[in-house]
Design a protein that fits this description.
Number of strands: 13
Shape: globular
Strand content: 5-15%
Distance between the termini: 87 Å
Structural class: alpha+beta
Strand order of the largest sheet: 3-4-5-2-1-8-9
Number of helices: 23
Length: 446
């Protein structure tokens, strides 16, 4: 099998071989190349010790030298070169107690997580596949190298990575690997929030985000996202629904594009429902206030998983507003756009549509037509350049001061009052009219 290596990777491998060492591209880059995917990065493994790698190449960075990793810089691009190693005993489901360098490639490959990630390649030696990674790729199977329980005991994050790879590659997880996941999922408690976040996002933005259901079935979400487990068991005795809250969420994920913020918003849009569920006298379920409560719970989840503030803000807005149902009047739609912000309004409509498509068939066409009409009216608002932000007003704080309004909090109060009026009567958004409005309402008698 022939893999086309990037020029810089071939150069690094060639230089190491020229100096008497073995060197290979290894791991995910080999897997993706065989699958016809473009690798995100290229990792190189070698029999050379870190100090020997540093002697061969002019510019290197000690990125993880205690674990044998040196980054070789070529034309301002870095390539990680790691010495063959054997990991010692793992004490915390995260880090080996010690790392021992070895000259044996197979020993290095033995410590890797899955067979599809334990292949190495060089133009000189071809494909090295001692654990039948190619066979598992052909079978579309995620299988641990060696004994699954040992691999997961070494690094518990591999438990979540198994589901993530299955989602990204549209593979299945083999039986032994699944059983080990069920037994050892609790060890994910030992993994940092940042590492959990990275894998969860990769799963959600994959081609099969519905694999979050498999994470639930294997006991993973019970540890990393227990709120989802509550959603999966929360029934919805309501004519508008045909799934549990969790399964509705899974279905909604299939109707939203693979954007991080959108997928997170859909994942969490109904997270408040289990707490807000009530049953009326005829047995119908209601979830009054679930969107507001959902935003509060989503905030706790996203902070717990160390998401950045921009993601936090956008997801919370979408969760809080997803159940807002404005009347089909431009003024109502403008008010919703004010709450969401113009940047997020189109995204909010995508979340609303995904939510609708994951409900029962009851009045689905009418609901979708309603959403289409909102989008149509919003587009008319945008095209007519109607005022939907305070900064769109034809009068500002400086103008108010020139009219005689004292500086201070009253400036903001007056601008907010004007803005509310203009949402209903956009034709009055002229400097002349607004100046007269301010004089008559706020300055007479001063």
């Amino acid at each position: 099998m022939k893999i086309k290596l990037p020029g810089q990777v071939s150069y690094i491998i060639g230089e190491l071989e020229k100096h008497g060492f073995e060197a290979y591209a290894v791991g995910g880059c080999v897997r993706d190349s065989i699958l016809g995917r473009i690798p995100d990065d290229w990792d190189i493994t070698t029999s050379a010790k870190p100090e020997q790698v540093k002697e061969i190449f002019q510019k290197t960075i000690d990125t993880g030298i205690e674990h044998g990793t040196v980054t070789v810089m070529i034309e301002r691009e870095g390539y990680e070169v790691t010495t063959y190693r054997i990991d010692g005993e793992y004490e915390d489901s995260r880090h080996p107690k010690e790392v021992v360098f070895t000259s044996n490639l197979v020993e290095d490959l033995k410590r890797r997580d899955f067979t599809i990630n334990a292949m190495a390649y060089s133009d000189k030696s071809g494909l090295i596949d001692v654990f039948d990674g190619i066979g598992d790729m052909n079978r579309k199977m995620i299988r641990c190298v060696g004994r699954a329980k040992e691999r997961f005991s070494e690094d518990a994050l591999r438990i979540l990575r198994a589901v993530r790879f299955a989602a990204q590659l549209k593979f299945q997880i083999d039986k032994e690997t699944k059983e080990a996941i069920k037994e050892l999922a609790v060890n994910l408690h030992n993994i940092s929030a940042e590492r959990i976040q990275t894998e969860l996002v990769k799963l959600l933005v994959s081609e099969e985000p519905e694999r979050i259901r498999e994470a639930y079935e294997l006991g993973i979400t019970k540890v990393i996202l227990p709120e989802f487990d509550a959603m999966m068991t929360c029934t919805q005795e309501n004519i508008h629904h045909m799934y549990t809250v969790g399964e509705h969420t899974v279905q909604a994920l299939l109707h939203i594009e693979n954007d991080k913020v959108l997928r997170l918003a859909v994942l969490l849009h109904d997270v408040g429902k289990p707490e807000k569920k009530t049953i009326d006298e005829v047995g119908t379920a209601h979830f009054y206030g679930h969107a507001k409560r959902g935003a509060e719970i989503a905030k706790d989840i996203l902070k717990r998983l160390k998401f950045d503030n921009d993601t936090l803000y956008k997801v919370l807005k979408l969760v809080e507003l997803h159940d807002n149902r404005p009347s089909l009047k431009k003024s109502s739609i403008k008010r919703l756009a004010v709450k969401s912000g113009t940047e997020l309004f189109p995204e909010l409509m995508k979340v609303k549509r995904a939510d609708t498509l994951a409900q029962s068939l009851y009045m689905r066409e009418e609901k979708l037509a309603y959403l289409d009409k909102i989008s149509e009216l919003y587009q008319e608002i945008v095209e007519s350049e109607d005022c939907i932000q305070i900064k769109d007003l034809k009068i500002n704080g400086k103008d108010l001061i020139e009219l005689g309004v004292p500086q201070g909090k009253k400036i903001g109060v007056i601008l907010s009052d004007i803005f509310e009026m203009i949402l209903d009567e956009p034709e009055k958004n002229t400097k002349e009219y607004l100046s007269g409005y301010v004089r008559g309402k706020y300055l007479d008698g001063m």
